[in-house]
Model the fold of this input.
Amino acid sequence: MKALAIKLLLVAAVVLAAACGADEGTPEDVVVGNVAPNFSLRSLDGATVKSASLKGTPVVLNFWATWCQVCRTEIPELQKLATDPKVKVVSIALDEDGASIVKPFVADHGINYTVLLGDQEVFQRFNGFNIPYTLVLDSSGRIVKIYRSVATKEELENDIRAIAKASGGGEPETATRSERADAPVER
Done:
């Protein structure tokens, strides 16, 4: 009887653990066509930002760090894109020292888009392994493009146009298949 009770407790614990993490996704789920993993991260002003709050508009989600020289070359492109009201640009800084390093960097570089403080756990959940790493999400949070290197403003604008076209609005798409948001290719 005691052995049965222990087995039932173990089964219940496994089921509960699986249910608690079910909506966060796994790295294997981070592919074009799937919904991006959920997150809840702190912004530089201390507010909590949840991924659910980003839905309703296409999102460019960029993972970076202040020490990453290649990431720095992408900042001006993201700053220009952030002026477009049809898209939200959100970056997740992966600096171990957090706000004490990121906040002055953001101020010094005039970053005009949302910056959140992330860590390796959230980066791994998004199947990240190098930076810069950028995901383009449609207004429902579905992944339409993954960049595992620098993404240019033009590439990202093409992705946003493709999202608008797919949802029945926006400008005609001019991108080639390899640049389109619905292309099943990661770059």
